[in-house]
Amino acid sequence: MGGAPAAPGQRLNAPIVVQHLLQTPQEFAEIPIRINPDGSVVRIKDIGRTELGSERSDIVGFNNGKPSAGMAIRQASGANALATADAVKRKMVEMSQFFPPGMKVVYPYDTTPFTKVAIDEVVKTLFEAVGLVFVIMFVFMGNIRATLIPTIAVPVVLMGTLAVLNFFGFSINMLTMFAMVLAIGLLVDDAIVVVENVERVMSEEGLPPREATAKSMEEITSALVGIGLVLSAVFGPMAFFEGSTGVLYRQFSITIIASMLLSVVVALILTPVLCATFLKPVPKGHQPSESVVFFLRPFFRVFNRVFNRIRSLYVDVVGHSFAKWTRYIAVYVLLVVAVAFLFKRMPTAYIPDEDQGILTVQAVLPSGSTTLEQTQQVMAKVRNYFLVQEKEAVESFMDIDGVSFGGQGQNMALAFIKLKDWHLRQRPDLKVKAITGRAMKYLSQIKEAMVFAFPPPPVVELGMASGFDFELQDRGGLGHDKLMAARNQLLSMARKDPRLVRVRPNGMEDVAEFHLDVDWNKAGALGVPINAIHTTVSAAFGSAYVNNFVQGGRVKQVYVQADAPFRMQPQDLKRLYVRNNSGKMVPLSSFATGRWTMGSPQLERYNAFPSINIWGEPAPGHSTGEAMAAMEEMAHKLPRGVGFDWTGLSFQERMATSQGPILYAFSIFVIFLCVAALYESWTIPIVNMLMLPLGVLGAVAFTTLRGYPNDVYFQIGFLTTLGLSTKNAILIIQFIKERMTQGEPLIDATLGAVKTRFRPVMMTSLAFFFGVLPLALAQGAGAGAMNAIGTAVCGGMLSATFIDLIFIPLFFVLVSRRFARRKPAVVLPH
In whole angstroms, how large is the CA radius of gyration of the chain? Predict the structure, then answer.
């Protein structure tokens, strides 16, 4: 009132507010439905009731048995998981001061504690690796000054590597930290080679540190560059693979390449400067034991005496191999056959399962005859088991009834079990695998439902459970019934296969459906529109959104639905009336009849084909690759027109398995080209190629002995072993060629080179072995991945050291003799 333009002299200016949104259930109850001719009013409260309730009543949640509401938060692509989780928790603490009394925030499912603890474990392993490498260097060198020089290179190279990772947009995660642990042993190798050679020159020739460093660098610079290029080239192809496997590969590839190239730069620039300034002059013939602390001299004298004997024995074995080369070739062939045999028999997998401190439970009750009340009773039994019988390991139990990974329905439920911190679960029986085994024994006794407990997949978002993820597809248009029959046939075969356990459908079973047949002719004659029929039935038995109301300053929704006692049975449909075009109410039973049928409650598609999702796990002692092979064997026995495919982690595993041979072949090809370019020869790289199977022997044998499969981490260890075998060959061949250029015969040059290089090769190899050993022996969070890669690399390092050292000089001599070219005769002019 009084709004502009206003009449002259207007003195009243006030807004007009007309009632719009209702705010309380009582106000809705007073809404008139009909006003009779006599003036009486029929209101909503006369024929129904109004109440405040949850927006959805078909899904309920409980945390440790108390009512709860769940909210899922996922980090954005590229976001830092730990920073995101911390930000969410800080915000919830800020908001919790406004919560009603008795309400609090809990985190029953959180992946970031595992990430944080796993990274902490790798960091601890990193320091252990540095310490072990320091000890090995000191034992071999016997000189604390010489030992400090390679140690100084470690933080310098790691800081440079972190800068490179930041440039490429990578984060500090388990994969990059694994790569750094591997890089510790690799990056000190270059500095060790420099320091050891400087000390050898000083001891043998009596040169001062500066001159000895200059001469040493002339001898080994090309070898250092070659080693850096070869190792970088081995890991380079990994960066270009696609999919999730490519993401894993790239973490390692960029980290190791950056650390290797930076270590070469440090070895060529910083290490020589440190040698020239740190090392003290020593007389000709000086022994390492002479410069150590007096109380350690007896140990170093014994060590050097034993080491010199081993070196002499090694040189004798190499010399014997030249005379009896056919026997050694036979041994080599047997070793190669053993490698091929063991590698072929290795089971395959994607990546190891981890104890992430979380366990998931999924329950499915009979469809059609189950209510949410029955589902809650089953989940109460499951909850009681974990909170009482597994209380030593379980921290909390949150169940969500009415929904699961397979769909939504009153007969389905899902639970997240949060386990206690890893340091409180050191015993083997408190690990997630043991807990799962005990839980399945109890859950299998629940008669009312199928209940499965399983850990989450090792890679979040690639599936929802560990094991395999199988899609059975109708590719021939057979129809839903035949697809279900094929599924049942497949499940029956899977139950009998000893390679498989816990094979189950991840979806919803066919349910009994009440099919309403409408006589459209009668409906049309009665003037009942089609949309009115649909609206009436869906509103009464389901619910219908009406409008909004305001509560506590927030706009909420209003739904209308028939009350529970009037929508429980098929005969309740006869109570429904539908308004026709004349405004009259027509009984639904006058133009519609009902019948029972069976049908699927949801439509599933995979790659556009009708499909059924099946989950399962390998039996103890078998890998996921073997389980997947078993499923494929059985799927081929199904009727024509039924196909299959893999999804989630299983799809990535198939990709990784198929990419493995390509990766190996390309890496070997790159090694060949790099060595050929280094020596400007097509024959010398043959020696390197012949050494590769011997390094792989240890990786395959150790991995097989520990029962680990051929997975992504094994492939990374495999490639690392290839590079290390080539490194040892380069260190020896480089000195053989230098001696031959000085006029020494082939045999003398070879024996002299292996004697000279035995110490640095053993020192670098053992430093790398003990640097990686903490990975192979790790326990706790992330131990699965650390053990897998550590075992492969440690085994490969041992065989690449103790077997390759015999065959490298032998094959060099044989190849050199075979491909030796006779120099053309020089004709002097008269």
Answer: 37
Show the tokens assigned to 334: 């047997």
Q: Is the dihedral of CA 756, 760, 763, 766 positive or negative?
A: negative
Amino acid identity, residue 500?
Answer: L
Q: What is the pLDDT of residues 704-714, one digit of tens each?
A: 998 888 888 88
CB neighbours (10 Å) of residue 339? 21
In angstroms, the CA 187 to CA 270 distance is: 13
Residues in Cβ contact with 617 at an 8 Å cutoff, skipping those fewer than 6 apart: 454, 466, 467, 468, 500, 501, 502, 503, 627
User: How confident is residue 105, by pLDDT bands cut at 50, 70 and 90?
Assistant: very high
Torsion of CA 339, 341, 347, 349, to 10 degrees: 40
Residue 439: helix, strand or coil by DSSP?
Answer: helix
The total number of residues shown for the chain amounts to 830
Q: What's the DSSP call for residue 553?
A: T
Q: What is the percentage of the chain residues whose pLDDT exceeds 90?
A: 19
Cα(369)–Cα(410) distance, integer angstroms: 10
- Identify the residue whose tokens are 């590969």: 249
Q: Report the alpha-carbon distance of residue 759 to residue 756 in Å, rounded.
A: 7
* Mean pLDDT, range 424-436, rounded to an integer: 88
pLDDT at residue 659 is higher than 80: no
Bridge partner list, 544: 560
Global confidence as pTM: 0.77
Q: Which long-range contacts (CB under 8 A, 24 or more apart) does 814-817 make?
A: 814/325, 815/683, 815/684, 815/686, 815/687, 816/683, 816/746, 817/746
- As separate numbers, helices (DSSP H) first and strands (DSSP E) second, the chain gives 22, 19
Peptide linkage before 5 cis (omega within 30 of 0): yes
Residues 6 or more apart in contact with residue 67 via CB below 8 angstroms: 60, 61
Residue 364: φ, ψ to 5° = -130, 125
Q: Which residues contact 160 (CB under 8 A, 6 or more apart)?
A: 258, 259, 262
| CA 374 vs CA 362, 386, 388, 410, 505: distances in Å | 15, 19, 21, 9, 21
What number of other Cβ atoms are within 10 A of residue 565's Cβ? 8
Contacts of 422 (CB under 8 A, 6+ apart): 117, 355, 357, 780, 781
Residue 368 has pLDDT above 80, yes or no: no
**How far is it, in rounded angstroms, from Cα 554 to Cα 55?**
14
Q: Using CA atoms, how far apart are residues 644 and 629, in angstroms rounded to an integer?
A: 12
Q: How far apart are CA 605 and CA 260, in angstroms?
A: 47
Query: Could you identify the residue written with the tokens 């028999």?
Result: 345
Return the ∠ at Cα 497 (arms to 496 and 499), rounded to 5°.
Answer: 145
Pairwise CA distance, residues 456 & 466, whole Å: 6
| 273-304 CB burial, b ≥16 within 10 A, e <16 | ebbbebbeebeeebebbbbbeeeeeeebbebb
Nearest to 684 by CA among 794, 787, 582, 813: 813
Q: At what angle do helices 174-205 and 144-167 cross, to 10 degrees?
A: 150
User: Structure tokens of 596?
Assistant: 């029972």
User: CA end-to-end span of the chain, whole Å?
Assistant: 130
CA angle, residues 277, 278, 279, in degrees to nearest 5: 100
Q: Rounded CA gap, 238 and 243, in Å?
A: 12
797 within 8 A of 189, measured Cβ to Cβ: no
Amino acid at residue number 244: S
Can you say how many angstroms the Cα of residue 10 is from the centroid of all Cα atoms in its chain? 76
What is the spatial distance between Cα 235 and Cα 670, in angstroms, rounded to a whole number?
10
The rounded distance, in Å, linking the Cα atoms of 414 and 382 is: 11
Please name the residue ranges forming H helices in 350-428.
Answer: 372-384
